[in-house]
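Hi Y.,

Following your request, here is the sequence exactly as I used it, all 173 residues.
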Amino acid sequence: MIDIYENYIKQSYRNRTTILSANGKLALAIPVKKLANHTPMIDVKIENDFKWQHQHWRSIKSAYGSSPYFLYYQDYFEPLYTKEYTHLVEWNVDMLTVCLKLMKVEKQLILTKNYQTSLSADLDFRNQMNPKIKSDFVGLPYLQVFTEKFPFESNLGILDVLFNHGPRWKEFI
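Below is the corresponding structure, written out as tokens. Let me know if you'd prefer a different format.
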């Protein structure tokens, strides 16, 4: 279940990810329109005056173009960077749907109809990850595109392991 009525939290993974580029870790953030405090996720609008999709896709192609699975997966991801989205939730649901499909994870996405005030601790992941707080999770190291240039970078976005190892992603997470 995805709580699309939770409050948007600035500088969270709700609108950003990290990839490994030729220059090291690169944060990609989807710009959002100015928000009032306690704005529900369903109401968060993307700022499309800035050509973020073009810039993100160019960065992803540059970073992963030589990876083993980029050519295989690019046609699934490219539409996310060409279709115009108005709301962040739409983009997030489409990205999650593509990732689950490629990972062969058969889960039905259930979007809430209102704010979920009480979820059991084992189901409430709304505040579990934050880019400002170093994660304790460390997946198994795997071969990355720029291995000759950088030591293994953990805790990157799912694109990194998918483009580098495709269907073997489970071995590293």
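Residues 19 and 60 are 8 Å apart (CA to CA).

Thanks again,
Q.
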